[in-house]
Amino acid sequence: MAGTQGIGVFGIDSKFASGSLVFYEKTVGRTATGDVLTIGTAAVKVGGTAQDVDFQVYGTGSLSAIIDIGAATLTLVGITSSTNKPLTISDATESTSTITGALIVSGGIANAKDTYLGDDLFLTSGAVINFNAGDITLTHSANDLALGGGTMTFNGNLILPANTDLTFTGTTGTNDIVLTNALADALSITDGAADILVVNTSTAGNVLTITGAINGNLAITSSGATAGIGYAAGAGGSATQLTNKGTGVTLDTITGIITMNNASLAADTTVAFVLTNSAIAITDAVIVLHESAGTIGAYSFGSTAAAGSATISVHNNTPGALGEAIVLRFVVIKSVNA
């Protein structure tokens, strides 16, 4: 077989070499030659290191062009050089299902490197995105995307469209939502129309745990008939007053109880002592109540806040002296001047 290509005459000839049948380009008046097709016991090779040859598989009409490798593995590699080229599929057919598109694979695809998409990624209903063999999963169901197995961290904004719910579901008795941020706003919600953060629970566990401050320009309310807004376990403390009823007490908690000394307090007389407490600011309100012990209703109380302390006064309302180690409960309510 002969023809012309460039300058000179070329043809295809064959030979046996190293146990293989080799079809090669035979030229006249040209210096370059190269293998076109090599058929051996181990492989069938198209082209060679000195000859670029296209390998084309054609189908006609509605028929399919098939490369059947049986139980073997089809490996596509380039020649080791700086000019390696990728596998390119030039068909631009859009994919609208699992049986349409430029490349259709009926089994799984294993990829050891990065994958870049220049257009949409479509997953069928019930699809799962699985990270590290189930460490974290994203599972789809009708109108729902569920995160399982770990936590999700947002380093930017999470913006929900109008009329869209964001639902967190945790295990009974554990924390469902944990927001931790010591530098800036961890959760910023802006809406002037209706409820924008609704937390519903039927269990005794914490459903919203925030480590840090909560700032807002609207009300924080509770409609729970047997619950409310207050301090959780760990916020309080206790202290005992020594020597007499005028002796100072130190307790650095936002709420707590103070057991006063049982020194005698004369009839219709007021005594004051200083509660040193780093949780108190000068603008705060310190509420003091008679918690227990002693004669309930026999005393009245007052308080004046300062920076890091509060002066608590106790008045004996009765016509006789009282020498009782009464227990006071105090609560600090944070306040500002403007």
What can you tell me about this protein's structure?
The protein is mostly beta strands and 338 residues long. It has four domains: 1-93, no CATH class; 115-152, no CATH class; 162-229, no CATH class; 236-333, no CATH class. The protein has no helices and 18 strands. It has a five-stranded antiparallel β-sheet with strand order 1-2-3-4-5, with no helix packed on it. Strand 2 and strand 3 (20-28) form a beta hairpin. The radius of gyration is 41 Å and the shape is rod-shaped. The N and C termini lie far apart (98 Å).
Features:
338 residues, mainly beta, 4 domains, five-stranded antiparallel beta sheet, four-stranded mixed beta sheet, rod-shaped, disordered N terminus
Kindly report the spatial arrangement of strands forming the biggest sheet.
1-2-3-4-5
- Structurally, the number of domains stands at 4
Look at the structure and give the mean pLDDT: 78
Terminal residue distance: 98 Å
Quantity of strands, as a count: 18
How would you spell out the order of helices and strands?
A: EEEEEEEEEEEEEEEEEE
Q: Taking Cα atoms only, what radius of gyration do you get, to the nearest Å? A: 41 Å
Class inferred from helices and paired strands: mainly beta
Number of distinct helices: 0
Helical fraction equals under 10%
Ranges where pLDDT stays below 50 over 5 or more residues in a row are: 1-8
Shape field: rod-shaped
**How would you characterize the largest beta sheet?**
5 strands, antiparallel
